[in-house]
Please model this.
Amino acid sequence: MATIRELKKTINYELSGVIEECYVWQLSNAEKSDKAEKIIDAAIESFDMLIARVNEKKLKNKKKHFQSIEKDLRKSTDSLMKKLVKL
Model:
């Protein structure tokens, strides 16, 4: 991990990519768009939670904290994309 700024950009990039894929899916499956909306909502919740964790100030071990955020980001994007593929 290089900087907090880059971590925030990565979080934004990864989760906005998931949301974009949901929008593309909605365009081709208009009758089932509510299913993709749930995935979009989950991506937004994940974004908010991860950014809040990045902004925490009182940390004992910064390196482990940010590594766990990166790990949770990967898990979140993977699970959201798997849900989208199942649609």
Observations:
- The mean pLDDT is 91.
